């Protein structure tokens, strides 16, 4: 498993470049202004949408979204190509040389430079994009498809292959067409290696890719295929392999192809075919109604709830069929469906979402160590990008993430961030030994004084922190509990001294970050 | 059982969390089960150099450079039964073997032919070789068969919650006993707890987990395993494995209600220079197990330790004087309830025609050994829940019945 300490120098270098560039300050550059957010116990639709289509958001971003309205904001998020992300991309290319390399260049460099680590560069770039890019929905969809077509980046040469796959296959198609994504993935060296397709020959068929292609990538486990279909699909893909002589590494090697006729899902594929046998399979699968239903359900589980209502799955699947897998159209149907509007709070944040939402919500002051915070905490909480060991990818259900140990880790992270003067680590963070390591404020310094503003009474402090952290109000019992915490034994109506008010604000912040309101989205 | 039901039964949800209650105290002494400690050798440990088949001539033919010499030769194996011998770095286990409290199972493993570390580990920990979509681990499913969970600490994973422990049953993952606590200032702790308790006052899963956190932190404080000293002059190696096992012993002695523990010991993927790389690991592995045995002393009558690894190594050494990924390997079983002092195996032999794709064949399924432990030492009734689809056999003669 990846260890932070082995990348210590790289972490420092990245942090320094981000700091020098001003990127370290990016979230804080958008000052809080405009009207106070309306406080509802249930978040309004815009807040709900932002919680689902972003990795967290500041008051400034909410104000912007409200100024253009939900429909326009959805279209804004669906058009990442219109956003100017050049500054960030240029910076990433400057720090991470592998991001612009061809397969041949990455392979050659890997063979000669022991310090070259394209896997770490991709993981770092992915987290930095998710943290800083305004194209939040796009980055979430990149994560979704990467996870859907999961490969484990630490499995042999995939650490060399995955970056090009991410750049050339996943990102260009993440809001494009599912069929294109499927075809690109089938020829991707990372997938050909991970699921053994490269060794699938007429003499020695390997069914690994064929099975996962139908079970995990398209039809779903109950999508209507048989064991015979698995064997036939494997035969169709014989000869799809890898060669260093090919620019994209993928080659169809005809001598290893099974040229007999095949029948896949009832469709006859005549004898004498070549690479088109596999391509025909991909087209059959991309057009299959089970694929539309399977992808629709998975997207609804991502954006609505662990157990989404059938009505919205059906609506999303219908759009998938009508548009032949147009991902933007599919997302429009999903986000404008009535079931989406009423699903607030039904998703438990996964570790990446929890960690990034702390960063993106609180406008931390620049310390130069924000990336280190994000990387280490995501790793400690168990969701390092591209690192899930099985082809299923990381689970999107709360049962996989919500347990005593994991929640205690999140609480302790929230407490550390809220109070600022505690170590980040507890239990799982080897890098931040309690008592001897750096303090939370060394990584993320939260501008509590700014957040506090002129609030001095317990009630005012509570309301102000709730508004800025959650952007919606909370139920009265919970508000009372926080007011009691903020009052710290004093009468709730008596203004506190600035020092006391700051301490109260920090305590309220700590509990808010631990609370269900911030664990869920 | 869901966490929610557990809470109702244990009464945790109704207990004021600032004045913790020792829910595990009722269970003390009433349990007719051993504590099961599962040690996982991550990276695929070379069973053939851990427990050397020095009586098999093919071993020396296939490992001319990295083979462990016969007993009584320089750096030779420590003979166990005239045919097998321990790696010379594992001498500390020999007295336990001689005392009848340590058994070796050889040519054992998961029947799935995967030679991917992650996939093979997942299969083993799910308890479903060949199926990687299983929702929970075999140890968590074992916990689900228990009548009433004794404690949040019924299952503890060191370092993290191992896949084998993951599932619906409440378990705890920890790096250290000291570190398993709320990360806050002493003055702030009570007000924070009060606020947290009031904010997590509904009956959703997240509320149950929250109550479990406060309860488990309190349970740990009350049981105070960190204050328990190492006994009988046992000396744990100053290694991660040694440190973890020392804390498992503390948890056991504290009576906190531990039923199953998972501990990892990594670094066994020796593709090159196997002898040099493996010697210190083998010593750490053996010395830690021996220290644990010494430390627990008479308590070992209620403790069973089982070790496993995802697969073994290729029988023939490679050009780098290491071994590549293979198939069968070795498991150790330790405890007073072990039919120790023997190497239990249906030895397939290392001649070419007896190998499985060039590797040591598996003649005992790892689930047979684990089922043996669960049935005989943990009074398990329902192996079909723990290992769905497993056809047995359910005993390899490794353990005596309680």
Automatic annotation (TrEMBL), chain A:
Pfam families according to UniProt: DUF1800 (PF08811)
InterPro entries: DUF1800
Superkingdom in the source lineage: Bacteria
Full protein name: Uncharacterized protein DUF1800
Organism: Marinicella litoralis
TrEMBL record, chain B:
InterPro entries from the UniProt entry: DUF1501
Pfam family, one: DUF1501
Protein name: Uncharacterized protein (DUF1501 family)
Originating organism: Marinicella litoralis
């Amino acid at each position: 498993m990846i260890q932070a300490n082995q990348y210590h120098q790289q972490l420092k270098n990245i942090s320094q470049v981000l700091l020098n560039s001003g990127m370290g300050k990016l979230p804080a550059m958008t000052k809080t202004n405009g009207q106070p957010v309306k406080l509802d116990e249930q978040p309004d639709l815009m807040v709900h949408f932002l919680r689902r289509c972003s990795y967290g958001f500041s008051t400034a971003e909410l104000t912007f979204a409200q100024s253009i309205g939900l429909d326009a904001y959805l279209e804004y998020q669906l058009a990442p190509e219109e956003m100017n992300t050049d500054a960030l991309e240029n910076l990433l290319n400057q720090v991470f040389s592998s991001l612009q390399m061809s397969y041949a260049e990455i392979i050659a460099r890997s063979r000669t430079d022991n310090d070259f680590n394209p896997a770490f560069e991709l993981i770092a770039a992915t987290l930095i994009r998710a943290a800083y890019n305004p194209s939040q929905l796009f980055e979430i969809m990149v994560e979704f498809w990467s996870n859907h077509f999961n490969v484990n980046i630490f499995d042999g040469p995939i650490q060399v292959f995955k970056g090009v796959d991410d750049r050339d296959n996943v990102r260009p198609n993440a809001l494009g067409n599912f069929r294109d994504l499927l075809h690109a993935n089938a020829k991707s060296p990372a997938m050909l290696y991970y699921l053994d397709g490269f060794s699938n020959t007429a003499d020695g068929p390997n069914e690994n890719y064929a099975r996962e292609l139908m079970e995990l990538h398209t039809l779903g486990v109950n999508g209507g295929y048989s064991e015979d279909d698995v064997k036939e699909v494997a035969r169709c893909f014989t000869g799809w392999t890898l060669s260093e002589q090919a620019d994209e590494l993928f080659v169809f090697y005809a001598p290893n192809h099974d040229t007999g006729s095949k029948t896949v899902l009832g469709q006859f594929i005549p004898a004498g075919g070549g690479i088109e046998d596999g391509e025909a399979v991909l087209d059959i699968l991309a057009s299959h109604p089970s694929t539309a239903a399977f992808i629709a359900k998975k997207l609804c589980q991502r954006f609505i709830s662990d157990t989404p209502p059938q009505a919205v799955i059906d609506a999303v699947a219908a759009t998938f069929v009508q548009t032949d897998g147009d991902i933007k159209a599919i997302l429009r149907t999903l986000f404008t469906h009535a079931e989406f509007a009423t699903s607030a709070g039904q998703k438990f944040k996964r570790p990446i979402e929890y960690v990034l939402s702390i960063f993106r919500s609180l406008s931390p002051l620049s310390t130069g160590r924000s990336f280190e915070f994000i990387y280490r905490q995501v790793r400690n909480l168990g969701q390092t990008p591209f690192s899930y060991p099985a082809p299923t990818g990381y689970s999107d259900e709360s049962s996989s993430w919500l347990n005593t140990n994991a929640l205690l880790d999140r609480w302790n992270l929230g407490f550390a961030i809220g109070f600022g003067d505690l170590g980040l680590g507890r239990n799982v963070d080897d890098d931040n030994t309690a008592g001897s390591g750096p303090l939370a404020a060394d990584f993320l310094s939260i501008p509590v004084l700014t957040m506090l503003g002129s609030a001095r009474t317990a009630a005012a402090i509570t309301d102000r922190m709730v508004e800025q952290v959650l952007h919606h109000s909370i139920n009265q019992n919970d508000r009372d509990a926080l007011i009691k915490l903020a009052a710290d034994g004093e009468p709730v109506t008596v203004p506190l001294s600035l020092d006391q008010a700051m301490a109260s604000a920090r305590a309220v912040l700590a509990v808010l970050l631990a609370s269900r309101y911030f664990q869920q989205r | 059982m869901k966490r929610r039901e557990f809470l109702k039964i244990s009464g945790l949800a109704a207990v004021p969390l600032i004045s913790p209650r020792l829910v595990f105290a009722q269970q003390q002494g009433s349990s007719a089960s051993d504590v099961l400690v599962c040690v996982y050798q991550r990276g695929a440990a070379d069973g053939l150099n851990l427990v050397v088949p020095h009586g098999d001539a093919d071993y020396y033919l296939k490992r001319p450079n990295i083979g462990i010499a016969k007993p009584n030769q320089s750096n030779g194996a420590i003979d166990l039964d005239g045919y097998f011998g321990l790696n010379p770095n594992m001498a500390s286990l020999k007295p336990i073997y001689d005392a009848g409290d340590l058994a070796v199972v050889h040519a054992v493993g998961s029947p799935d032919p995967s030679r991917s570390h992650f996939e093979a580990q997942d299969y083993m920990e799910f308890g479903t070789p060949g199926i990687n979509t299983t929702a929970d681990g075999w140890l968590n499913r074992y916990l689900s068969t228990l009548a009433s969970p004794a404690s949040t600490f019924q299952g503890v994973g060191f370092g993290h919650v191992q896949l084998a422990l993951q599932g619906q049953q409440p378990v705890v993952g920890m790096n250290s006993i000291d570190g398993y606590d709320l990360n806050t200032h002493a003055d702030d702790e009570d007000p924070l707890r009060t606020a947290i308790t009031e904010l997590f006052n509904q009956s959703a899963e997240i509320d149950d987990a929250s109550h479990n956190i406060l309860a488990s932190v309190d349970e740990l404080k009350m049981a105070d395993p960190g204050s328990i000293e190492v006994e009988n002059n046992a000396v744990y190696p100053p290694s991660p494995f040694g440190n973890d096992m020392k804390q498992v012993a503390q948890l056991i002695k504290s009576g906190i209600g531990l039923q199953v523990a998972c501990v990892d010991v990594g670094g066994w993927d020796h593709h090159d220079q196997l002898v040099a790389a493996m010697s210190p690991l083998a010593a750490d592995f053996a010395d830690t197990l021996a220290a644990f045995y010494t430390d627990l002393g008479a308590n070992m009558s209620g403790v069973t330790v089982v070790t496993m690894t995802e697969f073994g190594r290729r029988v023939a050494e490679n050009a780098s004087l290491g071994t590549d990924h293979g198939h069968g390997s070795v498991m150790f079983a330790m405890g007073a309830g072990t039919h120790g002092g023997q190497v239990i195996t249906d030895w397939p032999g290392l001649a070419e025609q007896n190998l499985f794709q060039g590797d040591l064949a598996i003649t005992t399924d790892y689930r047979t050994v684990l089922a043996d432990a669960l049935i005989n030492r943990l009074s398990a009734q329902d192996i079909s829940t723990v290992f769905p689809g497993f056809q047995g056999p359910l005993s390899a003669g490794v353990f005596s019945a309680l």
